[in-house]
What does this fold into?
Amino acid sequence: MKKVLLLVVITTVLIGACRKEDNSDKQTTHYTPMQVGDYWIYKTYKIDTQGNETDLNRIDSTFIETDTLIRNNTYHVLRTNANYGPHRLQIIRDSAGYIVNHKGERIFSDRDFTNIIREKYLVISSDTVGLATWRMERINGAVSVPAGTFDDVLNVKETVTFTPQSGFPSPREFKKYCAPNIGRILDSWGFFSTTDIYERRLIRYHIN
It folds into this structure.
């Protein structure tokens, strides 16, 4: 198997995939506002297995570019310009308590804290090397990032389990923290063949 740093692009589940759908007359709590022009700016850090952090001095931005109609459903188009990590174009909408992408895959929920909301087999050169699963969890206590301190945070917890034959460190866990009325405040990702974690932390944002 080629020994290259293979980015865990699966960890880049949508920056905007955190909106709570209102199924009652009560005010909706938006875990990501979805208005064209909303944006989020992040700074990236590298964290080793000992917990030592390195400020990479890299700034990423994510913004809602436009809306689009697919199969008579309105989707929001989010673009991420990354200075470290993958550039991404995401197409999402909310659907019956879940955020789904344009493929119909569930990627976030504000109410399903029991089931695996999504899973994906990891394949390299036709070889299956692992499985990634996503579950929702509530975070106890406040979460602080450069942009502020936030309560009632939800996490899309990703667990990646590799096969012994792959030779990759296993298991790996990554997080995507979402705060009410703000959206994604922190997420993490990594490379298949290293144990370092890369973490993006919100430094500023604009919500229409």
About this structure: The chain has one domain: 10-206.
